[in-house]
């Protein structure tokens, strides 16, 4: 998986955790031709994914990246090269369009109604149900569609670096 992901330029990325303790249970990574579900409870060494997650040249499209960043830091994993679709939606649509949850953004922007029933399911139970796996995969895959819909923004276009005089 990591060898394949190193060749990608844009990834949809999401995580599932336990509800209250925020234990990382699952990482979902979507690329152009596959969606990977990484069982973080079974994989004891997440270090191989670290260079991909912190590579600024591979765009990670995430909805509400603050949650992913806070979760991954607990596992010594850092994110770089992030496009946060929550930030993009807020900047492009403002406050007058309603909420900016992933469900609302997908409905408004893509005409896609996401079933979020499994969002609060027990992600620590194994095996995961077919419904949980489908939900998790779609949450990562849909981020690639949102990224394209929003014009494929880059991290630099969201947070441009200030230019110093004379540069």
Automatic annotation (TrEMBL):
Protein name: Ribonuclease D
Domain 3'-5' exonuclease stretches: 2-155
Gene3D superfamilies according to UniProt: Ribonuclease H-like superfamily/Ribonuclease H (3.30.420.10)
Chain segments annotated as coiled-coil in the UniProt record: none
Protein species of origin: Nannocystis pusilla
Residues in the signal sequence: none
A GO term, aspect molecular function: 3'-5' exonuclease activity
CDD domains in the cross-refs: RNaseD_exo
InterPro entries listed in its UniProt record: 3'-5'_exonuclease_dom (IPR002562), RNase_D-like (IPR051086), RNaseH-like_sf (IPR012337), RNaseH_sf (IPR036397)
Membrane-crossing residue ranges in chain numbering: none
BP term (GO), one: nucleobase-containing compound metabolic process
Domain of life from the UniProt record: Bacteria
């Amino acid at each position: 998986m990591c060898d394949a992901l190193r060749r990608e330029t844009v990834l949809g990325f999401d995580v599932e955790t336990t509800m209250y303790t925020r234990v990382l249970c699952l990482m979902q990574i979507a690329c152009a031709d596959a969606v990977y579900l990484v069982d973080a409870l079974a994989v004891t060494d997440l270090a191989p994914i670290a260079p991909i997650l912190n590579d600024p040249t591979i765009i990670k499209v995430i909805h509400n990246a603050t949650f992913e960043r806070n979760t991954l830091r607990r596992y010594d994993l850092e994110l770089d090269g992030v496009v946060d679709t929550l930030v993009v939606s807020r900047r492009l649509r403002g406050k007058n369009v309603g909420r900016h949850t992933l469900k609302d953004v997908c409905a408004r922007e893509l005409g896609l109604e996401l079933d979020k029933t499994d969002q609060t399911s027990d992600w620590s139970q194994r095996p995961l149900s077919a419904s949980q796996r489908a939900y998790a995969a779609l949450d990562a895959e849909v981020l690639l569609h949102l990224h394209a819909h929003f014009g494929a923004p880059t991290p630099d276009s969201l947070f441009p670096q200030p230019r110093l005089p004379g540069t």
